[in-house]
Amino acid sequence: RAEAYGAAHSAIAASGRGGLDLLKRLLDESAMSATDLGRLLGVHPSMGSTILKGDRSLTIDHLKKLSARFKVSPDLFIS
Hints:
Helix content is 58%, strand content 5%. The chain has 79 residues and is mainly alpha-helical. The relative contact order is 0.22.
């Protein structure tokens, strides 16, 4: 059980700018703000801005939510 929690909440570094750039483009096309991103991910609304600046990494749970919302492969956000 602890392993499942760790896997679902471990940080995935969005090391390349490609994943963040894609996320920003998808948000823009959907008229979503950084605050909306925070809400979508189930974190404090201000965390959306932190993620978009690259100061905070996406978790596996975040990737699943983004993939479902934008109907794209989660791999695209970590490229």
